[in-house]
């Protein structure tokens, strides 16, 4: 037990390391924006990516729960949910949503843990759905993390991952931007302001003109932009790399949505054969 506690503290320290983006802090500032409309959008996103109308009688593992929004969406769809995150503030966000909407619920567990902690993962067992959207490329050991969560998908179960798209030189540019953001606090506002016309202004205008002013997945433009500019550590992968990796682990690709060669995440739904 002492060894497990010591390792847990080590992972917490890693999450709070100054060379990491404060994901949890960003999520804490997102929670006041959370309303019923955003929650419904998250539910719709889950139903679409999983190809289901509900998750009754199913178990759901949220690996890297962040704000807790998708754990909440899965619980509202009927799943028994197990959430974990290595960032203490993200864990606080998830616990706040559980307290707000499902107080003292035995069917929603929230832990502070790291997807790279094999001792913790060994206790979890298998789930009908394992969900990790936009998380594993921030671990510093993406391929290990991708492998670790695959072990917790029940036979015939679904695995949902979203990973940064590798654009070659452009991705190297964003790597440098993200690294500078976390290492040099004095550069944070200049980096945000420099990229805001493209990441915020143009994106808002396009969505407004196309009649899609609401972000999918219940997200918020400003918080998304900060997450994108500051999200470090980070790794990227081409869609075919993720496909081949999970194919070799015995998974079948059921659905894939790419970001069309742009920056952002490619989204995959795999079935464990």
How would you summarize the topology of this molecule?
Blueprint: H1 2-15, H2 23-30, H3 36-50, E1 59-63, H4 69-76, E2 80-85, H5 88-101, E3 108-112, H6 118-121, E4 127-133, H7 142-150, E5 153-164, H8 169-183, H9 188-209, H10 221-230, H11 239-247, E6 251-257, E7 265-272
Parallel strand pairs: 1-2, 1-4, 2-3, 4-5
Antiparallel strand pairs: 5-7, 6-7
Tell me what the structure shows.
- Helix content is 47%, strand content 18%.
- It folds into two domains: 2-166 and 234-272, 3-Layer(aba) Sandwich (Rossmann fold), CATH 3.40.50; 169-230, no CATH class.
- With 273 residues, it is α/β, with parallel strands linked by helices.
- It is built from eleven helices and seven strands.
- Mean pLDDT is 89; it is low at 1-16.
- It has helices at 2-15, 23-30, 36-50, 69-76, 88-101, 118-121, 142-150, 169-183, 188-209, 221-230, 239-247; strands spanning 59-63, 80-85, 108-112, 127-133, 153-164, 251-257, 265-272.
- The longest helix has 22 residues, at 188-209.
- The two termini are 35 Å apart.
- The chain has a seven-stranded mixed beta sheet, with helices on both faces.
């Amino acid at each position: 037990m002492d060894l497990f506690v010591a390792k847990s503290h080590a992972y917490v320290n890693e999450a709070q390391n100054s060379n990491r983006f404060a994901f949890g802090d960003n999520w804490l500032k997102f929670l006041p924006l959370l309303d019923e409309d955003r929650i419904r959008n998250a539910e719709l996103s889950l139903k679409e990516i999983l190809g289901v109308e509900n998750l009754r009688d199913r178990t759901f593992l949220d690996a890297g729960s962040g704000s807790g929004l998708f754990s909440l969406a899965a619980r509202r769809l009927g799943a028994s949910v197990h959430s974990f995150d290595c960032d203490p503030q993200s864990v606080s966000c998830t616990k706040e949503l559980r307290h707000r909407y499902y107080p003292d619920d035995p069917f929603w567990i929230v832990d502070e843990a790291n997807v790279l902690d094999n001792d913790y993962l060994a206790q979890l067992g298998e789930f009908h759905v394992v969900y990790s959207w936009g998380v594993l490329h921030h671990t510093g050991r993406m391929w290990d993390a991708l492998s670790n969560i695959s072990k917790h998908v029940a036979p015939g179960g679904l695995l949902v991952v979203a990973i940064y798209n590798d654009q070659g030189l452009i991705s190297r540019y964003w790597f440098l931007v993200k690294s500078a953001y976390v290492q040099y606090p004095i550069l944070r506002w200049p980096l945000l302001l420099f990229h805001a016309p493209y990441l915020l202004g143009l994106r808002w205008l396009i969505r407004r003109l196309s009649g899609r002013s609401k972000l999918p997945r219940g997200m918020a433009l400003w918080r998304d932009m900060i997450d994108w500019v500051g999200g470090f550590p980070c790794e990227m992968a081409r869609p075919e790399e993720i496909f081949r990796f999970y194919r070799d682990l015995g998974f079948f690709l059921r659905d894939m949505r790419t970001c069309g060669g742009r920056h952002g995440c490619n989204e995959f739904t795999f079935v464990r054969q």
